């Protein structure tokens, strides 16, 4: 006899779902079932409030400096040009660049064949290239200067970057010693709004001639 039915006369016990249970239990089950249906319906209603297709919900990054302009500023070329677009640019102050990470990037076959992850050193290199855009100041007709790593400090890799990610990199000038041609910059890289890499960059400016 079902739970609670021992308190009832035999004729009060009913069949429910192939088992003998009291009307009290059957009512509780029916109430729970109805509540679950109501909750599911509410969730479905909430998800259907925004009927805009997902591909139209999110605005694209702006293009402040396109790839052709980047190629005019930076000396890097395939396969080592790691900035596809600049979406915010304050020459001599800061820049935000993006790198679209795809499975066709030439480093993925070896890093790693079974689990493609963007190498950390290339994340740092991509950030440094954004830093180069900050310092090379194309608004005055481009620069004939080159920049070189003089040091990297406090670099941390927070999360892996994989094929399909959009790497968003912000580089900000924090100190410039013009006499010695040394620039210090803070850098952070994001995927989906989360920091994946950060560090302090020291760059040396030098003439390419």
Automatic annotation (TrEMBL):
Q: Where in the cell is it found?
A: Cytoplasm
Keywords assigned by UniProt, alphabetized: Cytoplasm, Lipid A biosynthesis, Lipid biosynthesis, Lipid metabolism, Lyase
Q: Mind telling me which GO cellular component terms the entry cites?
A: cytoplasm; membrane
The GO annotation for biological process reads: fatty acid biosynthetic process; lipid A biosynthetic process
Query: Where the protein is mainly located, per its record?
Result: cytoplasm
| Enzyme Commission numbers on file | 4.2.1.59
EC top class named in words: lyase
Q: Which CDD domains match?
A: FabZ
The record's listing under Pfam families reads:
FabA
Q: Which InterPro entries match?
A: FabA_FabZ, FabZ, HotDog_dom_sf
Ranges in coiled-coil conformation: none
Q: Which residues cross the membrane?
A: none
Show the GO MF annotations.
(3R)-hydroxyacyl-[acyl-carrier-protein] dehydratase activity
Q: Which NCBIfam families match?
A: fabZ, PRK00006.1
Q: What does this protein do?
A: Involved in unsaturated fatty acids biosynthesis. Catalyzes the dehydration of short chain beta-hydroxyacyl-ACPs and long chain saturated and unsaturated beta-hydroxyacyl-ACPs.
Name this protein carries in UniProt? 3-hydroxyacyl-[acyl-carrier-protein] dehydratase
**Which source organism?**
Lactuca virosa
* Organism lineage string: Eukaryota, Viridiplantae, Streptophyta, Embryophyta, Tracheophyta
